[in-house]
Automatic annotation (TrEMBL):
It comes from Rhodanobacter caeni. This is GNAT family N-acetyltransferase. Pfam families: Acetyltransf_1. The lineage of its organism: Bacteria, Pseudomonadati, Pseudomonadota, Gammaproteobacteria, Lysobacterales. Residues 3-163 form the N-acetyltransferase domain. Signal peptide: none annotated. It comes from the Bacteria. Residues 185-206 are annotated as: Disordered.
Amino acid sequence: MVLAIRDVREHDLDAVLALNNAAGRSILALDSARLRYFYEHAEYFRVAEVDGQLAGFLIALRDGGQYDSPNYRWFGEHYPQFMYIDRIVIANNYHRHGLGRVLYCDVHSYAEVRVPLLTCEVLLEPRDDVVVLFHGTYGFQEVGQQRMGKDGPQVSLLALDLPSYAYVRETWLDKGGLPDVPWLTERSMPSPTAAGARASAGRQHP
């Protein structure tokens, strides 16, 4: 088995959308517009490939964005700096292969040199004890609960302290930035203007 973790590419989006919306009740459904928002704005959006096949993905956003998720906004109201895991999805064929932990380790490594806190939420309605246990064993702790909208599900808001960040900030971030090495490279963000132009051009043709 050959595993690769890489930044998402535009040609992956249809497969990512299908994978997300086949995941069941524990993952909120996506439409193409919301997925496009993630593609254009998420600082961390990586896929897991197994033998060249899309096996999973994880999307995370930095603080200070315009994302309209109530959980993202909750963390923004309580913490000045954080990385927010919006979702992680693993294809059914690759469950119990450890891909979830691989992606969490990767986003942890990415986040700990940029922010002091990694955050996410888990649904309590319906409650999935496997998901709750997964986050607990990884070190996340509950820092709050809320209901997602008037009739939405109750969620547990989780945070993981990243103690390495203080050292990285004092050693590099406060003195010009991270070293210029490939494993610290940030995702190359697509241009929303260019993406919009491509979409408009496509709509002009029957």
